[in-house]
Specification:
Elements lengths: L5 E6 L4 H17 L14 H5 L1 H14 L6 H15 L5 E5 L31 H29 L2 H16 L4 H4 L18 H16 L7 E3 L7 H6 L12 E4 L12 H10 L4 E3 L24 H6 L5 E3 L10 H12 L3 E4 L6 H13 L7 E2 L15 H11 L2 H16 L4
Parallel strand pairs: 1-2, 3-4, 4-5, 5-6, 6-7, 7-8
Helix pairs in contact: 1-3, 1-8, 3-5, 4-14, 5-6, 13-14
The chain binds zinc ion (ZN).
C-alpha cells in the first residue's frame, strides 16, 4: 500500500457492449410502439421508422465516445489503476464510476415544474422478430461499415493495439446481432434482488449487474453512482425504497444527466433530492456545456446550467452535490463562475475537474483555485475516462502529467484524496 488512496471522483467504466445492448432495447421499444416520444400519445413513429438514421448516428457517436473501453468493467478498473499506479507510485487508485442512462434521449422532455407524462396510452404492438432483426442488422451494418475503413488504415500504419480494439468491436457487434434474446427478456432477473420494479432495458441492466459483481469482488476499490432519469418508469420509487443502497445494493451516490432531457427542477426530481438529503447520499450531475451527445447546440444543453440547481442547494443545505466538470466547454466561464459562487455561499457544493485535457484548460482553473479558499476544500480530481479519449488530445499519462504541471503534490493530495473523501463521507 502507498501513502494514501487516490480517488478518481468522476469516471465511467461502461463498455461498448453496454451501449450496443441499450440501443437494441431502444429499437425494440420503437417497434413495440411503447417508446415515449415527444408526444407519448401520438401513435406515429414518423421518419424514425423509415431509416433509423438517428439510431445509426447514436451508435457511431457512442463508438467514438467509448471506443477505448471495448473490454469489461473490470478491465477498465484495472486499466485505470495501472495508469494511476505509474503516475503516482506507490499510491493505489480507487474510483467513483458514474452510470449513465441514455435511453430517454429521444423521449419527451421533462421541463421545469412538469410532471412525468403518463405513457399508459401508448399502444403496444407485438414485435415481429424478422422485422426487428432486419432493422437491427441495418443499424449494426452501418456501424461496422463505419469501423471497417479504420481497421484497414490502422493495419497500414501497423498500430497493433488500436487494430486489436477495432477487431474486438467488430466481434462485439456480431455477439449482439441476435434480437431474439430481447424479445424473450421480459422475465429478466437482476442480480440486485429487490429492484425488480423499474423499467429494465438491456444495456442499463447489463452494466448495473456488472458493477454490482465488481463491487463485491473488488471491495473498497470502487464506489459506483446509480444513474437516475425520472422518465424511466419506477426508477424513482426504487431509489426511494433504498434498495440501491441497502442489502444487495451497493451504490454510493446518484448520477444525474439533465442534458438527456429532464430539467433539474422538473416535478419528480424533488423526491430524489429529499431522499438523498435525508440519507446523506451524494449527487453528481453533469455540468458542462459539452458532453453527450457531442454538440454544443444539443437542445437540452441548458438543462445542465448550474443555476438550475441553486434552488435545490438552498432547499437542501446538507445535500452534497458535485457540479461536475466545473462548467467546462464554456469559453465565457459563466457556468464556472456560478459554481464558484455556489461553493462560496454553500457548505456542501462540490465540483470536479473531469475531462480537463490540457494545461491551457487547467490554467484558468488554477486561478479560481488560488483566489477562492473555499474551492480548495471542494474541488475534486476526475478523469472522465474514457470519455476524455474522445477529445483525441490525451492518453492517461499525459492527463496526469497536465495536473502535475499545474498543481503541487500537496494540492494534488487535496484534489485526489481529501475532498473526494469528504464528498463521499467515507472513512479512509
Ligand atoms: Zn462524465
Amino acid at each position: 500500500m502507498g501513502n494514501y488512496y487516490r480517488y478518481d471522483a468522476h469516471c465511467h467504466i461502461f463498455t461498448l457492449k453496454y451501449a450496443i445492448k441499450e440501443v437494441k432495447s431502444l429499437l425494440h421499444d420503437i417497434l413495440h410502439g411503447t417508446y415515449p416520444w415527444d408526444d407519448p400519445n401520438a401513435k406515429k413513429l414518423g421518419s424514425f421508422k423509415r431509416s433509423f438514421s438517428d439510431l445509426k448516428e447514436l451508435l457511431r457517436q457512442l463508438y467514438e465516445l467509448i471506443h477505448a473501453a471495448g473490454g469489461t468493467e473490470e478491465e477498465n478498473l484495472e486499466f485505470l489503476q495501472k495508469e494511476a499506479g505509474t503516475a503516482f507510485t506507490p499510491d493505489e487508485l480507487h474510483i467513483i464510476p458514474l452510470m449513465m442512462d441514455i435511453f430517454y434521449m429521444f423521449a419527451y422532455p421533462l421541463n421545469k415544474d412538469e410532471e412525468i407524462l403518463s405513457v399508459k396510452r401508448l399502444k403496444a404492438t407485438p414485435v415481429d422478430e424478422k422485422e426487428f432483426q432486419d432493422n437491427w442488422n441495418e443499424i449494426l451494418d452501418d456501424l461496422s461499415d463505419y469501423i471497417q475503413p479504420q481497421k484497414k488504415s490502422l493495419k497500414a500504419t501497423r498500430n497493433p493495439n488500436e487494430t486489436k480494439k477495432v477487431e474486438r468491436t467488430l466481434k462485439i457487434i456480431e455477439e449482439e446481432r441476435a434480437v431474439k434474446n430481447i424479445i424473450e427478456s421480459k422475465n429478466r432477473k437482476l442480480k440486485l434482488t429487490s429492484t425488480q420494479d423499474f423499467y429494465q432495458t438491456e444495456g442499463y441492466c447489463y452494466h448495473l449487474d456488472n458493477l454490482m459483481d465488481l463491487v463485491k469482488k473488488r471491495k473498497g476499490e470502487l464506489y459506483p453512482f446509480i444513474a437516475i432519469d425520472p422518465r424511466r418508469p419506477g426508477i424513482i420509487d426504487t431509489l426511494l425504497s433504498g434498495s440501491f443502497f441497502n442489502g444487495d445494493g451497493l451504490f454510493y451516490g446518484v448520477k444525474l444527466y439533465p442534458r438527456m432531457g429532464f430539467h433539474p427542477q422538473s416535478k419528480p426530481m424533488d423526491k430524489v433530492y429529499k431522499y438523498c438529503n435525508d440519507n446523506q447520499i451524494p449527487i453528481t450531475f453533469h455540468c458542462g456545456k459539452g458532453g453527450f451527445p457531442p454538440s454544443a447546440e444539443w437542445k437540452y444543453s441548458e438543462f445542465g446550467n448550474p443555476i438550475n440547481f441553486e434552488p435545490v442547494v438552498k432547499k437542501y443545505p446538507n445535500l452534497k452535490i458535485d457540479f461536475a466538470h466545473l462548467g467546462s466547454s464554456d469559453p465565457s466561464h459563466e457556468w464556472a463562475k456560478t459554481i464558484v459562487r455556489l461553493v462560496n455561499e454553500n457548505e456542501n457544493v462540490y465540483s470536479d475537474l473531469s475531462c480537463y485535457t490540457s494545461t491551457d484548460e487547467l490554467m484558468p482553473v488554477k486561478k479560481l483555485w488560488d483566489d477562492n479558499p473555499k474551492l480548495k476544500t471542494r474541488l475534486m480530481f476526475g478523469t472522465d475516462f474514457d470519455v476524455m479519449y474522445f477529445t483525441d488530445k490525451v492518453n492517461m499519462q499525459l492527463y496526469y502529467n497536465n495536473f502535475k504541471t499545474i498543481f503541487t503534490p500537496d494540492e494534488l493530495k487535496i484534489l485526489m484524496h481529501d475532498n473526494p473523501v469528504n464528498f463521499m463521507g467515507i472513512n479512509d
